[in-house]
Amino acid sequence: MIRLLLGGVRSGKSALAERLLLAGKAPHRVLATGRALDFAFRERIAAHKRARPAGVAVIEAGITAMDVLCAEAARGGTLLFDSLDFWLFACHGKTVMQPPAAILTTGMAAYAAADGPELIVVSTEVGLGGIGASAAMRRFADLLGTCNQAVAGLAGDVRLVVAGCAMPLKGTAS
């Protein structure tokens, strides 16, 4: 099953994702997509690492996340994709054969069809904020919104996390 956790910055979506990961079947793996480009973000990544138990394997994938995701479909356990928005950041400026939304849809659909291990996808919900001040910000928000909708279409469980509270949008929250 695919679960999608949406929320704003510091909404509690990562904490919920970690709890769901550890409550799922072992082995537990995190597919990390973020790149530490500045000190503040390095600190965020370090905090996530400190919060995880030592036995949780971390796969640093960046732009190759969809390839890694398809490879992981053959394994058991539970996989946390952290996060969709940072995967899009990793794709920014890279030469890819298809638009990121097409790559995402193909990868997630293949994962769902393979009936792989439980997949928890974390993403920022940008649709609740203001309109971006620049054309680049608006394009990113549009692309992330399209990607979030594509994953939500494949997911059996979609939740919006606000102030640490998860509201079910689709499926049953357990």
Write a structural description:
- There is one protein chain.
- Helix 3 (65-72) packs parallel to helix 5.
- This protein has helices at residues 13-23, 39-51, 65-72, 84-91, 100-113, 135-154, and strands at residues 2-7, 28-32, 57-60, 78-82, 118-124, 157-162, 165-170.
- The protein has 174 residues and is an alpha/beta fold.
- A hairpin with a 2-residue loop joins strand 6 (157-162) and strand 7 (165-170).
- It contains 6 helices and 7 strands.
- It is 43% helix and 22% strand.
- A 7-stranded mixed beta sheet has the order 3-2-4-5-1-6-7, with helices on both faces.
- The two termini are 13 Å apart.
Q: Could you tell me the strand content as a percent range?
A: 15-25%
Estimated radius of gyration? 15 Å
Helix content: 40-55%
Query: What global shape is seen?
Result: globular
In which order are the strands of the major sheet placed?
Answer: 3-2-4-5-1-6-7
How widely separated are the two ends?
Answer: 13 Å
By DSSP (H or I, 4+ residues per run), the number of helices equals: 6
- Which residue ranges are poorly predicted, with pLDDT under 50 across at least 5 consecutive positions? none
The average pLDDT is 88
Overall SS class: alpha/beta
The number of strands is 7
Write out key terms for the chains shown:
single chain, 174 residues, alpha/beta, 6 helices, 7 strands
